[in-house]
Design goal:
Elements (H helix, E strand, L loop, with lengths): L5 E5 L4 H5 L12 H9 L1 H4 L6 E4 L3 H9 L7 E2 L16 H7 L5 H4 L7 H16 L5 E5 L1 H11 L17 E7 L2 E9 L12
Parallel strand pairs: 1-4, 2-3, 2-4
Antiparallel strand pairs: 1-5, 5-6
Helix pairs in contact: 2-4, 7-8
Amino acid sequence: MPAQKVLLIRHGETEWSLNGRHTGTTDIPLTENGRKVAREWKPVLSQLTFELVLTSPMQRARETCELTGLGQRAEVDNDIREWNYGDYEGLTAQQILAQRPSWVIFSDGCPNGEGPIDVQSRVKHVIKKVRAVKGDVALFSHGHFLRSFVAVWLGLPVQDGSFFLLDPATVSVVSHYRDIPAVKHWNAPLIHSGTDYPML
């Protein structure tokens, strides 16, 4: 049997992702460019079969999911929402670092928001759900959450999410090497070659 593949799809571009602002609980839409890129994924993802499709409740993730053609299959899952940034919501990294020069979200969390243990608990719940499925899975989520997800998938602490950079409107794939959790592809943008996308 081929190893299960889990596609980690970061939502498309928003005004705040363009400006580098931390977007957790603020529910903002995609930009027109974000919508355009999401639509370009449709012929690629339509070739694949998923036993489970999950999306964050935030409209930027749900809209990305819809535009790729998987919206009717998707279940909204509150566990794959973005980190709650608390007092840092809407701030850029530069603004936060001006207050706390050594701050790293994956180890320090956010005041009046979530900490690493909170997010790790959510990630573990999602991984349990994913591994209970026999076939492939697609998750439409957010940058910091998906970086946390890949760390925990590999058996690392959530703090190691800091090692995995992730851009908007990208697809990453995690799977297994034999029985060992592994990364197959990471931070891959759409390749404009029709519907041929060998990484998937």
